């Protein structure tokens, strides 16, 4: 019976293939770049050794959480847990803490294995919801076993009682995702295969990939998540370096490779891929599959279907070669026959079995059971509704789509998935996703064939072969010939690639944000009323921007309809910020000139001739010269001559070639109306950028003087746990350049005194000096451990000072590319960022060993030291000769310039936040893990006011002038870890506005003018607009 368990299957394979490679982990772009492997004998030996440890510390028949990222030892951890008579429950380290806490509570998890690199993150994100105690640290396995217990009341989680999974007759539980079963698979896998682990552990296809490989003596190939987002590198790794033979992916992930790679590598005549299994989404039509496939290709292509609640795979259809070679292939592929011990039924809306026609799929079987939320027992034979609708024809099931993807439009039925498949069949289209914007506007997001190949081939794509307007017009013209008017998309949005969820499916929410951003930018760039109307008129009719409009033309006669007229009406009124009950009627019955005349009447005379863009969410147009590195013509010396500003967290500003000092307290603003207190302020999304992993770093804004304009060229610099550094246009969010470094990036960047270098620390122990124009490496300095400290730049000498987890502070000269001095900080890593006082030639640095040091900036010699015996995660800051820092013991401490403690203020939680000063009021601001932001008197530390957030305050506050946002006086922005950004009046702590992001936030906000930028743990960096409107009287 042992062989019937997952571990037993792997053990049997290992006995036959002990000396074969079981697992390969590749962190780079090829086999010669960081690939490490385990043999089957090593895999079994390590997993058995781990299981003995788990048996010693864990209760029998328990569930053990697995909190990890991609690693060579993933199969060791899983098999070790299974061999210890336990089941594993994968927990997503990228998800908010309350999500993992809810899973733990529902499953009654008492133990969790946490990879060593994520222990600090695990503790920080979950300490509010669970109590935790380290059972044992296992360096050999790079994992720490923790005993956990849910707190009596876990904020942010549902009040769900902990339930131990107990399914009568189904002992031997292997894993808990949302199901408890294994699946049938094509029985074509052998010891010579290489199986790619495409899915995260929290997505059930990962179970198929892992045990399909390891039960067959095959090799399991694992790569970091970030590599899965780089099509060209991933293709080289899979198909050239490791010759992958089994590929189970979603169609969207497959299509990201682009036609060129699909034709030349994946489905070429010499392709290494023997089995291509497509699931999770509708299978591409046979004609499209055939266009990728060489006539001599031998790859077996499967359409697989299933739902997590019952089985990862429930149906499987091997697409016959005859179908792929057919001159007139069908538009869709059948779902196929049910797998072993699986029952599939189709029922209509009344619950009756359907043998021909449309209905909903139900899946179950005697051995296909699961427990859903609130269920204590599973009834064998239960069939679960899938929510998927199919057509039954000739005993085959053809996928129609989700119920909510079949809509009525203008009173007529429209299947969004069928429309998507039709668009996908056009030769100009490589990938496509169709959705409804705000429940009404029909959008098609399209990756054009030329753009797709370009994205796959280069990290820095240039313009497409055809102008976007031509491609859009051509596609819409073809659709108008193929479809009735109600099925033609209202807008076709060209994107470089389709955004994906962590499970590899289309991220429709991210695509909708892209559309909203592009649409807002297009209207904001329109000038007067006529240009605004012209822009909306062209977009509603699907016309290119260079097409002229006759002022006497009627909207309906020009190709519009009532639905498009409604959209145009909404767009115009929204962009102008006015209301009109007559506008829709005028658009339908009148001319372009009539509509323009009506709008002129709506807008006050003093505003009708000015730029509508002044009321938009962002400035009217991007500053010239920041579209990309190719557009940048000035030399580094010219840039320095022009001058620049660097805006960082805690309201720090470094200015070069200006008449101001190197540090200012209140930021200069772009402009705005002073609406004083009689205004309502709001925070709204301007743009967001996907970095690939959590963004804990804080952004840096660089503003360069512009020879051709009074508006500075503005760039956002930020790093991510995906190993990436991104340079983004502050106004539009366009990616200027991107670099992938050697490991995670948690530290915020800095800019050298000359302005030509971006300086950033990395988990690989290196400090990178990158060209500010292109991201190319100019110099790399290696420390002895991870660099999570943000560099500080001396505006006088140009020295860059940075701390390392090796316990040292380094002073680096980027011009000479040498280390001027280094100093050991007395024990413990240097996590916090050094702070320098250039005018006094002093440097302040703190360590996790509880040391706060004052060093001579030029020599590194100790001036004084202060020991607290508790770690300093907070970064020091100074004001009027006093140094302030937060401590893990809950105190905010102020020291004289001689190193003597002047005062301390006790909060009710650890202080990881760093202090920020309000010079005009002689006060300071600092957050605490007790969830409060504190405003203290600088002189004596007395409490001025406090504000309670809805989470913990890890980030550093940012003080800024409210003028640009239409508010009189000074404001403070701060984020709580639950994702909420708060804007407060700095005088009394009263809330002005707030905005919640869809993820946890450990990044600190940075504000310039009316723009706020911040990172989020949902992988995105966000740009938000601060805007005020007069209150209704």
Q: What do these coordinates show?
A:
The structure is a single chain. The chain is of the alpha+beta class and 1033 residues long. Among the domains are: 410-515, ANL, C-terminal domain (GMP Synthetase, Chain A, domain 3), CATH 3.30.300.30; 529-611, ACP-like (Non-ribosomal Peptide Synthetase Peptidyl Carrier Protein, Chain A), CATH 1.10.1200.10. The protein is 21% helix and 31% strand. It is built from 21 helices and 57 strands. A hairpin with a 4-residue loop joins β47 (916-918) and β48. It is globular, with a radius of gyration of 30 Å.
Tag the structure with descriptive keywords.
GMP Synthetase, Chain A, domain 3; PQQ_rpt_dom; alpha+beta; 21 helices; Non-ribosomal Peptide Synthetase Peptidyl Carrier Protein, Chain A; 1033 residues; five-stranded mixed β-sheet; PQQ_b-propeller_rpt
Layout of helices and strands:
Layout lengths: L5 H11 L4 E6 L8 E5 H18 L5 E5 L6 H10 L3 E5 L5 H11 L3 E5 L3 H8 L3 E9 L4 E8 L43 E3 L8 H10 L4 E4 L8 H11 L4 E4 L1 H5 L2 H9 L8 E4 L7 H7 L7 E8 L3 E8 L2 H5 L11 E2 L4 E5 L9 E8 L18 E11 L2 E7 L3 E4 L2 E4 H9 L4 E9 L3 E8 H9 L10 H15 L8 E4 L13 H17 L4 H13 L20 H15 L6 H7 L2 H11 L2 H4 L27 H7 L1 E4 L5 E4 L22 E12 L9 E7 L2 E11 L4 E6 L5 E6 L9 E2 L5 E5 L4 E6 L5 E6 L9 E2 L6 E4 L4 E6 L4 E7 L10 E3 L4 E5 L4 E6 L5 E6 L9 E3 L2 E5 L4 E5 L5 E6 L9 E3 L4 E5 L4 E6 L5 E6 L9 E4 L8 E6 L4 E6 L5 E6 L9 E3 L2 E5 L4 E11 L3
Parallel strand pairs: 1-9, 3-4, 3-5, 8-9, 10-11, 11-12, 22-23
Antiparallel strand pairs: 1-2, 5-7, 6-7, 12-13, 13-14, 15-16, 16-17, 17-18, 19-20, 21-22, 24-25, 24-27, 26-57, 27-28, 28-29, 29-30, 31-32, 32-33, 33-34, 35-36, 36-37, 37-38, 39-40, 40-41, 41-42, 43-44, 44-45, 45-46, 47-48, 48-49, 49-50, 51-52, 52-53, 53-54, 55-56, 56-57
Helix pairs in contact: 2-3, 7-9, 9-13, 16-17, 17-18
